[in-house]
Amino acid sequence: MDLLTQLFIGLLAVLTIILLAMAAQRLLGVRFGVVRTFVAALVAFGLAQPVLTPLVTALGVTGEERPPDVAALGILLLVLMCMVLIPMVLLVLAEALIPPGSLPGPLELLRSARGRLSRARRYSQITRIAIKHGLGPYLRGRGERLEDRSGKVRLARSLREALDEGGVTFVKLGQILSTRRDVLPAEFVDELGRLQDQVAPAPWERIEPVLAEDLGGPVERVFAEFDRTPLATASIGQAHTARLHTGESVVVKVRRPGIDAVVAKDLDIVRRLAATLEARTRWGRSLGLRDLAEGFATAIREELDFRIEAANMAAVAATAGGEVTCPDPFPALCTERILVMRRLPGKPVTAAAAEDGPRLARDLLGCLLRQILVDGVFHADPHPGNLMLLDDGTLGLLDFGSVGRLDASVRSALQRFLLAMNRQDPLGVTDALLEVVPRPEDIDEAALERALGQFMARHLAPGMDSMQMFTDLFKIVSAYGLSIPPEVAAVFRALATLEGTLVRLSPGFDLIGEARAFAGRHLAEQVAPHTVKESLTHELAALVPMLRRLPRRVERIASAAEHGRFGMNVRLLADERDRRYVTGLLHQVLLTVLGATAGLMAVMLLGAGGGPQVLTGTSLYQLIGYNLLMISAILVLRVLALIFRRPRDSGEERPYRS
């Protein structure tokens, strides 16, 4: 066989494989990946001869005599349908056993090989740290269940030390967990609250290239002075003092070089670890570790982008009022890795005189409550390290990496919650709480109302410990299966952090009394004559166009009813998605009926005796029965392919996937 003949046979084989792939996918009516379809057609081409030879022999086809034209046509159709049926069976089996996307493709495997090796090294390092601190059994879900407080304290200390040794991402994770009193016991919250992310500063030789690259030139071109010794350091970035050529004193916050790659790797590990613990341990499922990990990943990614912090700074400054000052960012100089902001003159708030403490605490509480309840943009981490006492005697806010945002409906529900707490109204508190958090289907509202009533009776008296109040409130939320949304959890976190700060500023500060006073002032603002007049004006302006059209519409309805022409039209399946779903369902039913009918007819013809003999040992009825059997199999496979694919597609079209 010469080379040209071999090339022609090879080209014909490739063309046959492509035609088989196209025919199989067209008959199944479902999109498959190119690689998967081609492999199925290739396997079918290889199996064609072993499968078809016994079939043709069983039909009595020999080379000794030429079969009739009808028989030849029937055999040709039967052979073609058998060849197409093989890749269809393979595709349906693959769809049922190995759905698209369940296994990575070859290119994806090659791209992720280096990342897998790097992640494996980091996994082993984290595992060694966990085992070193005695956390190995808990990662496997086999740790002992601790009931006594001393055991919980020991475990919490081990967890804190392991997170501290794990690096920046795990330190941040511990800091965020220390604010979730709704999901962690008090022993863990207290211990994780001691985590600090103070680290050694990065050398100037590594910081200067970041500044030069993001600022588009040498540091001296932008700044008249730049202190190379950091003012403060943290795990994500460090701050330097500088002066612009225009004379303003500024603080320049620079992200540590290479920290984004480390954090990305650690976040991937945190997600995988959370998924494993939630699947294998009871405590992981009760805490909802998957959701916690996703929320943490979102928060830390935002903290890595200093442009987000600059926007947060401007948003909080617009709501801070005159009692609290926020530094102004310089947007033209802010990048993803650099934040330039005006330097606030002052000293740490812990250095404030004792006589100024009550005033500063009252200003800070009023500012944060107004941000939460009125403006909807608030500083979510008001601990003493993020506060300054300015030279003019007011407070200054720092570090806007963690800022919460609330929509109008949540703010309104929180306002009603606070006002009901002020009135000690258990019913109002329960209704407002169930507006803030997702309402479970089987909640016992009467029991929740009684629990909140007892809670208010215990804690809403002067002189009570408000930190214990937050802890008990979180316990009630957890006991009744109420999951707190992330934005509301940020509110409780900010308030819990604020309580500790207020105690530092003014020991014995009456948080409950001041919050009640704020609620009373805010309620007075809402019911003031000018506020009520303004609200009524807006509502009437919205209602006037409707009221003007209402008499004409009522007159037309009455006239139609009087003359017997009143009717109502109801459009079923008006939504295109509903029509598409019903159409697909009817198609499946029709294909099932046709396939079953073809199968029954095939069985009847194959079992029928007599009929003209078209081949040796095969009658025309039997040949038609074999063809109907293939048609029945094709229709059934099409239905199965749609059934296996529909739960993942939900009626939507999908792109080809391998």
Supply database-style keywords.
single chain, alpha+beta, 5 domains, 5-stranded antiparallel β-sheet, 4-stranded mixed β-sheet, 24 helices
Would you give an account of this structure?
The protein is an alpha+beta fold and 658 residues long. The protein contains 24 helices and 13 strands. The chain has helices at 3-28, 34-58, 69-97, 106-132, 136-139, 149-166, 168-177, 186-192, 204-215, 219-222, 259-280, 282-287, 289-304, 306-320, 357-375, 408-423, 426-436, 445-459, 466-479, 486-505, 511-526, 529-562, 576-607, 620-649, and strands at 223-226, 232-233, 237-244, 249-255, 324-325, 338-342, 346-348, 377-379, 387-390, 395-397, 403-405, 613-615, 618-619. A hairpin with a 4-residue loop joins strand 9 (387-390) and strand 10. Residues 648-658 have low confidence and may be disordered. Keywords: Membrane, Transmembrane, Transmembrane helix, Ubiquinone.
> Can you count the beta strands?
13
**Overall morphology:** extended
Radius of gyration computed on alpha carbons: 36 Å
What's the N-to-C terminus distance? 37 Å
State the helical fraction: 55-70%
Largest sheet: 5 strands, antiparallel
Low-confidence stretches: 648-658
Number of domains: 5
Fraction of residues in β-strands: 5-15%
Structural class: alpha+beta
On the 0 to 100 scale, the average pLDDT is: 79
Number of helices: 24
Protein name: Ubiquinone biosynthesis protein
Family: Belongs to the protein kinase superfamily. ADCK protein kinase family.
Transmembrane segments: 6-24, 33-52, 72-94, 589-611, 623-644
Keywords: Membrane, Transmembrane, Transmembrane helix, Ubiquinone
